[in-house]
Fold each of these.
Amino acid sequence: MLMELIRIENLYFSYKTGTQTLLEDISDFALCGIDLKIHSGEWVAIIGANGSGKSTLLKQLNALLLPTKGDVWISGHNTRDITSLRQIRSSVGMVFQVPDTQIITTVVEEEVAFGPENLGVSEKELRERVERALEITGLSPLRNRSPQYLSEGQKQLLAIASILAMNPGCLVLDEATSMLDPRSRENVLSTVRKLHGEGMTVVTATHNMDEAAQAQRIIVLSEGRIEFDAGPTELFSKEKLLSDLKLGLPYPAKIASRLKYLLENDPATLLTINALSDAIVMTLQKRGVKG
Ligand SMILES: Nc1ncnc2c1ncn2[C@@H]1O[C@H](COP(=O)(O)OP(=O)(O)OP(=O)(O)O)[C@@H](O)[C@H]1O
Ligand SMILES: [Mg+2]
């Protein structure tokens, strides 16, 4: 049975503080009545327009923000419980859009070691964790560099390595690839795929539909509420919902819908380049075109 890692019940959050009893107007809330469970090993993408509440929701997952109303539990620990903060922060690692804000030390290797060192792990385990994090992110050759001389993509990989060294059960990425060039973006995404393949829970907020389509489950936020929660194929087949929420299709599905006259497949099932090219080849073969 899948273990419940994150449980959110009737979560309301307002950035307006000090006047919480006066918060009658629903527009005062960045999150309005969120109910959500995420199980261990899932990859969940959170999408929605600017200001829909994605970052606010993600910040609730490691107690950077606390509910105004309702509750958030991480591995059974309520985020309001200050004595659980350390456990919560070490089980949910968060990477933001701008990596500079997270870099603390002057050497890549030390940066990766910084978090677990502060947790007080043994020297042997520290070395192992740092090696593994550098290896999985491909940063080993840059271990002695100063983080300030890394490229943006390498800084983002460093932010991920630093989080991984903390051994979190869940990796939360808030638009972590949005400023990266295509190759760096693919590096980050392939690292995420690798980690997810090894059993890590992944929660990503993104505006990129191709990225969202890689998740097993997509949650659409609109004005602080969950408007949709199911798999990518289901979402991308809902034309009206997509148009109401001003969401696009992943590129392969866009091409597939342009090729409707040729392909029998539902574009919502063609979410990757491989799926699209396989469908085109099959169709051409059926029509007697030889490769
Ligand atoms: N620090 C803050 N103080 C006050 N209001 C905030 C703060 N941060 C966000 N908000 C408001 O909360 C709402 C949700 O913002 P949030 O940053 O969660 O949206 P988002 O979905 O992450 O948007 P984006 O796609 O632009 O990153 C918005 O109305 C925003 O203006
Ligand atoms: Mg955001």
Note: Residues 54-55, 174 surround magnesium ion (ligand 2) (CB under 6 Å).
Amino acid sequence: MKKRKKIPVWKPKKLLVQKKLKIETKQRSVNKKQYDYKWREVSKTFRKNNPFCCDCLKSGEYNSKNLHVDHIIPLVEKPELKYEVSNLQSLCRKHHSMKTFKETLAKKKPT
Ligand SMILES: [Zn+2]
């Protein structure tokens, strides 16, 4: 009787990485749950009250597409102002990325 060849268990690396990621997201979601639900509510209400991009409005444009709720003082500087409505503004995707870009530049070159 011939011995059966053992079939090697094939473990693709990808799977292992996914497993690791899953664990990491699990740990992260603990914080996320507490913060993000509130943030979703705050930003939803804010967008309802401020349905146009703040910067577009300055040039007389009523832009309500791809609105982001932006923190005027970035969260990295004042994380405690995350839900502070007076620190929020609606920005379209273009203006939001412009602001983020400026902030990144300012961080690199402190004045
Ligand atoms: Zn805009």
Note: Residues 18-108 form one domain.
Amino acid sequence: MSPGLHGPERTCLGCRATLERDALVRYVVTPAGAVTVDYRKRLPGRGAYTCISRTCLAAAVQKRQFSRAFHREGVLAEVATLASELTGQIAERIFNLLGMARKSRQVLSGGSLVFDALHSKGQPALIILAEDMSTDIANKIAHRAEACGVPLWHRYDKELLGRLLGKEERSVVAVQAGPLAEAIKTELFRLEQIAGEC
Ligand SMILES: [Zn+2]
């Protein structure tokens, strides 16, 4: 691909890789000197970047790269706090995307509906199972999804999934193939990159 087709690039403070800005997390510093996540890249002021990875975030903090990037001594940057902010902001993005998918009728919900869809031609592109749903149904759907090669995540609870879809509690949510499903998958994979102990 010609370089002209890429967006602007930035360097990760953790691993020093240069990547497209869209593939990185942006951080800004508050007037009080705390580093904060700007996942949507909309906050004014100087920005600093890392890969969407807990490892790179931790490396940036340990090497005091945020102070250097913001030209300011002693900025407050904690891995756990920033990872949790990032998780929250990615979740918001997922909820927005699910809302859009729902409005364009690309969302299925309910165990039997999703299970049947897995047997049909128009297989969903991804499935989210509520963390507090019945294990039996969850296992049944997970086995079927694995056999069909449909990615599946255990995230959020029935009440939240239902609320996102404007319904009562929902244990199983599936999104039909398309750009919205791809965008949701990207965000769900990103969440995995920032989870973990640190
Ligand atoms: Zn990196």
Note: The chain has two domains: 3-77, 95-194.
Amino acid sequence: MRTFTAACVRCGHTTGYPAYRCPACASPLALDLAPVAAADCRPTTGRGVWRYAGLLPRVRHAVTLGEGETPLLPLRHGGAATHVKLESVNPSLSFKDRAMALAASAALDHGLTGLVLASTGNAAVSAASYAAAAGLRCRVFCATGSNAGNKLETARAHGAEVELVAGHYSDAYAAAIRAEGQAWLNVTTTYRNPLLTEAYRPIAAELVDDLGGVPDAVVVPVGAGPLLRGIWLGFTDLVAAGLITSVPRMVGVQAEACAPLARAWGAGYRGREEWAASLRQPIEVGPTAAAAIADALRGYEDEGLLTLDAVRRSGGRISAVDEPAIAEAGRHLARQGLFVEPAAAAALAALHDLAVAGPGRADTCVAVLTGHGAKEPSTLTAGSAR
Ligand SMILES: [Zn+2]
């Protein structure tokens, strides 16, 4: 495991962990991890997310419910060699379990009372289950606009205290910040807590092991986007360790109905501050089935810069897909035996564009299927009726 410091992404000021913002300039923090050697990138005898413990920041506890090591399957889809990474089969049916295993372990390390977070649903279920496994309390703030009914019932079943906040996700985000502090680790799954992003590094190692090499592109549904950045960081580890020579193009996908990152990306890169200004422009948010990635970033716009930075440095891009394309991708996956939530189907919808478009065509693509459809089956059956 790797020693680390928390450092401001803007001014470089370092601070101890847990911390959520730079004490000097209030920008987001990122963890600066010690470098890895090739041996650190190999699987260990650990279970779950700890199987690639050498890639992770150092914690003393190792909470697990068997997350990670998710299957990679070939998929019949157009002409490209397409694969899907089934993050939907994690213990609470989404990729967030990787982050919560690490976060719950860190909370125990620091003697904290529990986990607190804002969530549209998936993270609430994940945090609640890992808090229960670790003997921690869990508080969930969910916006009334998030329509997360079934997921919140599951979180309550795990013993979480659920509070509804009038408004949108950003309102719940602010409530979680007010609750974070000495006793409560804020595990809101944006970039608020810099530890969470690190839990996704092993996905890169798993992909290289399963494919026997580096894919040309990895397509990831993104709200704020720590999953995409974490996977990219994992590939940069493997390059630094000399195990691979290039990173895949990282492709972020948003629903057109809520696509601040795709809009900023479309404006082109003229520098960090220009992108920050683009993200701060008000964005119209429409209805979308892909609620899990509908994040307008209101009040924490600068967090989006971390995702844009990873995409740019990987040579990738950020796409937006419309609702009919998301619904069709979901049906396509269902007909091949894979039942995923609309946010996950968005990855396949974007992958279609990627495979057929001329410049930037990718030959070996991985679509990360971020969450299972079982928690909101009506979104898919509603699509089937059309
Ligand atoms: Zn700073």
Note: The radius of gyration is 19 Å.
